[in-house]
Write a structure and sequence with these properties.
This protein has about 575 residues and is of the alpha/beta class. The protein has five domains: about 1-100 and about 320-370 and about 415-480, Glycosidases (TIM Barrel); about 110-170, Oligo-1,6-glucosidase, domain 2 (Alpha-Beta Complex), CATH 3.90.400; about 210-315; about 375-410; about 490-569, Immunoglobulin-like (Sandwich). The protein has 16 helices and 22 strands. The protein has helices at about 30-35, 40-45, 80-90, 110-115, 120-125, 175-190, 230-240, 255-265, 295-315, 330-335, 340-355, 385-395, 400-410, 460-465, 470-480, 485-490, and strands at about 10-15, 50, 55, 70, 95-100, 105, 130, 150-155, 160, 170, 195-200, 245-250, 275, 320, 360, 490-495, 500-510, 510-520, 525, 540, 560, 565-569. Strands 13-12-11-5-2-1-15-14 form an eight-stranded parallel β-sheet. The two termini are about 35 Å apart. The model has no long low-confidence stretch (mean pLDDT about 95). The structure holds alpha-D-glucopyranose. Alpha-D-glucopyranose binds near residues 64, 200 and 201.
Length: about 575
């Protein structure tokens, strides 16, 4: 099979293997489970699979705490399984993208263990620093998961930096030996036939200065740091840059657009594209996620349009997405889980998939999977959620109020098991523990509880229904390959100030595409000179079966709840 190497036309399907498919009935998803579902992903039309990490790990952050980059965690399978996965995906024209976590390693990684044993060579792989006084860390920086970003080591009377969990120690990229080890790892996986890489929080690898941040959490000292572009160019040159068939995406935490022109410029020799998250903070208060505020639609549009037009003007490329393993489910977040579940899920997909960029679909998004239906804190497992549940209560919130916030923002919302069918465990694993195979710790249940709405939201039901969200995603993924205007066209924002309408025009070599969506659950009117004249256009997609209301000005002047349509000429 041949691969779609043009990432402008490609769609990436993201898998969180722990929650995708469990082949051996131990309650944890695994690589053989993924292999068993490759035909499903191929039918959807995806060109790449990005899998979150399955390397050896104590799993304190579900694999983002890597203890050995050269081997597979036995909970997920074996090296032979990875090789089979790469080969079987390749048979279907699908490339594997691996998730490389290089800002930090697990404290169980050999490098860190040697450092803790006092080996000076490996101590320099990390940031060990003296505190400002007894019991006072070197700086006041906060961990992204809550608490101080420094952990104390009594043996050395020093602290080491961990921007995430204390068991995720930050690597010191200033040390050239660290950079060479990382390059070796990337080349190792290239040698196995991996076709792409996603680099975890890669814009945090260059730390500017270890100073207190009087009015922030410290991020300004390590976000988009002074040497990050140099490090990425070196990595590119020494590894994936030698193979134009490999695609790369960097996860950019709290970045700026100006930096992304360089990270993802067509000729800057860093990465192919970036994930940025500003559009997913429109239901935060500033950078504060652990609050309940309604999504700010005006801000969402402004941010999306800014990134679309400016990245294009600077010849740089976006990854476009609503969902991943760190975000709540988009239909619960910006759509409607109830009456307009199907319409709103299709509308959200349309808004994203007609943009300029490479779309990423997160497992279950193509089914309209919703947030977890958990009603007690005991059902949540994510370290970030559990930490913030405590922090919120220390700040004075009642347990119930803290729980409400966790229910809305928890990363576990996207990590509930994939809903394959309507059986007890949604087909994620065999329903009866008796049918579990010879796994030594055969569990009766999935590691994280299945959502009860599997009875109607599941792959089997949606494959059978031609009007399903699943089939709508297939169409969108196919359209990007059929119409160059989607892959390559310019983006002109429309209805910028409208309180309900999300709309834009794409143009490419005499072809035009117009996407119109009502982002809200009530009827709306779109009038005025700006409403496009759709004379000569064909309606090629929409989420209401019947034609739009006839209207004197334009067929898109009156929009029903969450109505969307796509027009082409
Ligand atoms: C990224 C990952 C997230 C992880 C963090 C630390 O944000 O997507 O899941 O917890 O990096 O590695």
């Amino acid at each position: 099979m041949t691969f779609t190497t043009d990432f402008h036309k490609a769609t990436v399907y993201q898998i969180y293997p722990k929650s995708f498919a469990d082949s051996n009935g131990d309650g944890l998803g695994d690589l053989r489970g993924v292999i068993g579902k490759l035909d499903y992903i191929a039918d959807l039309g995806a060109d790449y699979i990005w899998s979150t990490p399955f390397f050896v790990s104590p799993q304190n952050d579900n694999g983002y705490d890597v203890a050995d980059y050269y081997d597979v965690d036995p909970a997920y399978g074996t090296m032979a399984d990875v090789e089979e996965l790469i080969a079987e995906a390749g048979e279907r024209g699908i490339g594997l993208m691996f998730d490389m976590v290089f800002n930090h390693v697990s404290t169980e990684h050999e490098w860190f263990r040697k450092a803790m044993a006092g080996d000076p060579y490996y101590k320099q792989f990390f940031y060990f620093r003296k505190g400002k006084g007894p019991g006072v860390p070197p700086t006041n920086w906060e961990s992204k998961f809550g608490g101080s970003a420094w952990a104390y080591v009594p043996e050395f009377d020093e602290w080491y930096l961990h921007l995430f969990d204390p068991t995720q120690a930050d690597l010191d990229w200033e040390n050239p030996d660290v950079r060479h080890e990382i390059q070796k790892i990337v080349r190792f996986w290239m040698g196995k036939g991996v076709r792409g890489f996603r680099f975890d929080v890669i814009n945090l690898i260059s730390k500017a200065a270890f100073e207190d941040d009087p009015d922030g959490d410290g991020r300004r000292f390590y976000t988009d740091g002074p040497r990050v572009h140099e490090y990425l160019r070196d990595l590119n040159e020494a590894t994936f840059g030698t193979d134009p068939g490999i695609i790369t995406v960097g996860e950019m935490s709290s970045t700026s657009m100006e930096q992304c022109y360089r990270y993802a410029g067509a000729d800057t020799h860093e990465l192919n594209m970036v994930f940025s998250f500003h559009h997913l903070k429109v239901d935060f208060m500033g950078n504060e996620k652990w609050v309940l505020v309604p999504p700010d639609f005006a801000r969402l549009k402004r941010i999306v349009f800014d990134w679309q037009t400016n990245m294009a003007a600077h010849n740089a490329w976006n990854a476009v997405f609503w969902c991943n393993h760190d975000q709540p489910r988009v239909v619960s977040r910006f759509g409607d889980e109830g009456r307009y579940w199907k319409e709103s899920a299709k509308m959200l997909a349309t808004v994203m998939h007609c943009l300029r960029g490479t779309p990423y679909v997160y497992q279950g998004e193509e089914l309209g999977m919703t947030n977890a239906d958990y009603t007690s804190i005991g059902q949540f497992l994510d370290v970030e959620s559990l930490n913030h549940y405590e922090i919120l209560q220390r700040k004075g919130l009642k347990a119930d109020d803290a729980l409400r916030i966790i229910q809305v923002h928890s990363r576990d919302n996207s990590r509930t098991p994939m809903q394959w069918d309507d059986s007890q465990y949604a087909g994620f694993m065999p329903s009866s523990p008796a049918s579990a195979s010879a796994s030594s710790h055969a569990a009766a249940e999935p590691w994280l509880a299945v959502n009860a709405n599997r009875d109607h939201i599941n792959a089997a039901a949606e494959i059978a229904d031609p009007d399903s969200i699943y089939h709508y995603y297939r169409r969108l993924i196919a359209l990007r390959k059929e119409l160059d205007v989607i892959a390559f066209g310019d983006v002109e924002p429309l209805a910028v100030d409208h309180p309900d309408v999300f709309a834009y025009r794409r143009r490419w070599q005499g072809h035009e595409l117009i996407m119109v969506a009502n982002f809200h659950g009530h009827d709306t009117e779109w009038t005025g000179a700006e409403v496009p004249d759709l004379e000569g256009f064909e309606r090629i997609l929409g989420n209401y079966a019947d034609a739009p209301h006839a209207n004197t000005t334009s067929p898109v002047s009156g929009l029903r709840p969450y109505e969307t349509s796509v027009w082409y000429r």
